[in-house]
Amino acid sequence: MSVPQDAADRAAALREQLDFHNRQYYQLDAPLISDAEYDALLRELQALEGRYPQLICPESPTQRVGAAPLDAFAAVAHEVPMLSLDNAFDDEELAAFDRRLRERLGVDSVEYAAEPKLDGLAVSLVYESGLLARAATRGDGYTGENITANVRTIRGIPLKLLGAGWPQRFEVRGEVFMPKKGFEALNARAQQNGEKVFVNPRNAAAGSLRQLDPGVTASRPLRFYCYGHGVFPAEALPSRHHELMELFGRWGLPVSPELRVVEGVEACHETYRRLQSKRPDLDYDIDGVVFKCNRFDWQELAGFVARAPRWAVARKFPAEEATTRVVAIDVQVGRTGALTPVARLEPVFVGGVTVTNATLHNADEVQRKDVRVGDTVVVSRAGDVIPKVDRVLLEARPADAQPFVMPDRCPVCDSGVVAVEGEAILRCGGGLYCPAQHKESVKHFASRRAMDIDGLGDKLVDQLLDQGRIKTVADLYLLAVEDLASLERMGEKSAENLVRAIEKSKRTTLARFLYALGIREVGEATAQTLAGHFHTLDALMAADEAALQTAPDVGPAVAGQIVAFFAQAHNREVIAALRAAGVHWTEGVPEGVGERPLLGQIFVLTGTLESMTRDEAKDKLLALGAKVAGSVSKKTNYVVAGSEAGSKLVKAEALGVEILSETAFLALLAR
Fold this sequence. Notes:
- This protein has 671 residues and is an alpha+beta fold.
- The chain has 24 helices and 24 strands.
- The strands form 6 sheets. Strands 14, 15, 16, 17, 18, 19 and 20 form a 7-stranded antiparallel sheet that branches. The protein has a 5-stranded mixed sheet with strand order 2-13-10-3-9. Strands 5-4-7-8 form a 4-stranded antiparallel sheet.
- The longest helix is centred in the N-terminal third of the chain and has 22 residues, at 5-26.
- The protein is globular and about 95 Å long.
């Protein structure tokens, strides 16, 4: 069947569009169409080629995965050896390299092309007549493996070059790598499927390229940047490296956006520091900066030694991964009571610092990695993050290594440890008593929506605890003016005002007091519900999980947290001390709590109300059983809109949520 001209023209246009959008997405990180639109174009081209097989050509985007699985990789002899680079591990070694090169060239200063040293797999690409003809691994530098079928699946690598002016045959060299986000997604899928995860992005990239089935490679998020050339006609070669990279970019080959041309060794030091600081923000791993003499004639003059050029060097970053031994496993208690196992290590230099501790995150993580005291482990530190134990070297495990077991008592205050269903984190149950949680508990207790102690800010809380003036929230009610006046930024008048605010806070409501205790899962609405249901603190403290779940909107998770909190003797001691200090409320049915006609209704407040503050409106709604949310959703029943209401009002209108003016809101409260 002959191919109609309109079909041939459409296929050519689709190939051009798809190549353009591949470049926008995979090289420039600037997609101009959605994935769905791209897929629609690709399907249209596939349909045309299926109807008219004569339209199929090797450079078509539909042929990215077209080869059958291989039995093995054929050997490829590199026409120009793919040599490695010498390394410089500090500024002195880089300066020595620059000095040797200047002496050999007989010049005062060298212009360098500087680019990130990618942590991936070096490959060679040969183009013939503008089409990708062959791809090979570096191998031993002289002989590599033919991975053409796999490289064709990497969408950032053009199957057909753009523009014109390229040599009839030439060789591009570069690095195939896997972006960090793609690596994380790949490992997440592997874990879900019960498959082995990759150790790092470099191993993932190398493993993906050496798949016998190109279809597997195609499913991996691989990228490519050029960094040099091999076989290249001398008459077509520009005079400088950066000019060649610019040519590659115009031909559609991806080039690192971080490539810079710098003059002299001081500029090299500055470039190194710039990329080192930028390293954590890059979407791909780099392990140093490569500095190459920019002029090709000077490269030729400098020559080679053994397996490395004299005109280039890799200034390596400090190692981000190292091996050491676990000497102990301790448990730290965070400000919210979370228990975190921490490995104490034999000191090791990693990521530019000496590391002696590494987080093990939680009990599940320790069990999954099976970290034991005495184990030899691989520790990593990327950027400035906390070091972590990546994996155990099981072959080095001592015979007497014992599995680690998380404690059932808090190592700081000896309160019981609470485990919540569905959470990997264990927590200390002594929230009011535990010294590790003091600052968080006091700040929450004094906050405006809790006990509302005006003037007791975060910095003052820090001072009171750091100087031992208080140990628990109950001690706040024992403070005198003279205890406070001597503190930083406090005078007699400020101390008097704070003491008055503390005294005023003694009269509260049961709902506010419950919220102030900081029981996990007990927010303002739940505290209001509990106060309205149980009426007294003693009744609530005596309730078991079954009784608690008779209260509206209190499920097993919330009930479990409440029971666990009141079961801690230390928490009960602090509550008793608070009541003894004069903190009180009206027992029985709380003021404003009757049949709670708005129970289960969700309100959102937006804009400014004239008759009351937003906080006052919130209190009235909570007292009537309503929930007050911070954002509008399909579950929202009412949006109360005051003056200058913003985006929440717009979203409510779009979702069809009922909107109440201030007048309508007041009428609802009156009813």
